[in-house]
Amino acid sequence: MAASVPWRVLTLVWWGLSWWFLFKPGSGEPPPFEHYDKLGHFLLFFVQGLLLVPAWRARAWQLMSALALWAVLSELAQGAFTADRMADPFDALADMAGGACALALWWAVLGRSGKLLSFIGR
């Protein structure tokens, strides 16, 4: 159990930083390329998904459910509590895609070979 504590701290720190990015006011500048914001959403949730596996050691469907719930709730909160942002279902889809890709990466690189359990300290 102690091996997961640093991972949990990193996960919570990243989650807090993600909330800051999701709720900070827009710069007003045009994005560098089309769908730039979708890439940002994807990457935020990709990293969160990478951190969740060793932090909580839950089943993939549980982690993906948590990421999907967070994606939807964060979009609803953006729409409700920010003046210059709106809830965008495509942002939530980009969030979920990032999380799903992170979980798939864990499975593909470490999970199938049995190295995942030793890597995360089980």
From TrEMBL:
Pfam family, one: VanZ
Key words, A-Z: Membrane, Transmembrane, Transmembrane helix
Keyword Disulfide bond: no
Record domain VanZ-like: where: 33-108
Residues that span the membrane, as ranges: 38-56, 63-81, 93-110
InterPro entries xref list: VanZ-like
Recorded superkingdom: Bacteria
Protein name: VanZ-like domain-containing protein
Source organism: Crenobacter caeni
